[in-house]
Amino acid sequence: MKREVVPEILDELDGSDPRALRSRRDLRLINALMGNERWIVRELARRASAGAIAELGAGHGELLQALAEKGWDCGGYDLQPKPAKLNSGISWAQGDFFETLGDDRAPIVVGSLILHHFEDGQLQRLGELLASRQCLVFAEPLRSSLALAEGYTLFPFVNEVTRHDMIVSIRAGFEKGELPRKLGLIDGWRWMERVTLRGGLRSFAVREGVFN
């Protein structure tokens, strides 16, 4: 299946639009079913010592909150403003993280269901911004026929925005081994990737010599 990046409806809706609010609830449900955020917290707790973490596409901040409670110094990047309920100790940068991430020196960068939004050229640019980091942890849609079939089974439980965006996301997702090449982060990096039964691709990457 050829990778195809198509604009998602949710990205074009005002944050207060009822369809957007419902779709964001749907996405939290899908994320919970996929177990992405639990996996990120668990892997970092197992493999890394506490330090500074930046999350790309932080959304409602649940992942940041969970990481902060584990002792990490956390900062979020998102187009939306900082959620009111989020811990005051968690920093937040609203806007395009391609423009602001370069000023952040957090050695660990994480993201859940964010990288598939970007074309190959943007991923290459992002890789340049991430090249000096120590650890990258990403959970993305697996681009496969099985993942599409699993997505269609959720149609009765989500709204029309989520139905469209979910299929678009899978078609824009990644196959195993593809993300390191798209980011241009192969030499000097060690990538550990795993495909899940629920249509996910989990990637944990460290620069050589880190966490040994």
Structural class: alpha/beta
Number of helices: 9
Radius of gyration: 16 Å
Mean pLDDT: 93
Q: How are the strands of the biggest sheet laid out side by side?
A: 3-2-1-4-5-7-6
Q: What is the H-and-E element order?
A: HHHEHEEHEHEHHHEE
How would you sum up the global shape? globular
Strand count, sense and closure of the main sheet?
A: 7 strands, mixed
Number of strands: 7
Q: Roughly how many Å apart are the termini?
A: 36 Å
**How much of the residues is beta strand, in percent?**
15-25%
Helix content: 25-40%
What features would you highlight for this structure?
globular; 212 residues; 9 helices
What is the topology?
Layout (H helix, E strand, L loop, with lengths): L8 H4 L5 H17 L1 H12 L4 E5 L5 H8 L3 E6 L12 E4 L2 H4 L7 E5 L7 H11 L4 E7 L3 H9 L6 H12 L6 H6 L5 E7 L4 E8 L5
Parallel strand pairs: 1-2, 1-4, 2-3, 4-5
Antiparallel strand pairs: 5-7, 6-7
Overview of the structural elements:
It is a single chain. With 212 residues, this protein is an alpha/beta fold. 39% of the residues lie in helices and 20% in strands. It has helices spanning 9-12, 18-34, 36-47, 62-69, 97-100, 120-130, 145-153, 160-171, 178-183; strands at residues 52-56, 73-78, 91-94, 108-112, 135-141, 189-195, 200-207. Strands 3-2-1-4-5-7-6 form a seven-stranded mixed beta sheet. Helix 7 (145-153) packs antiparallel against helix 8. The model has no long low-confidence stretch (mean pLDDT 93).
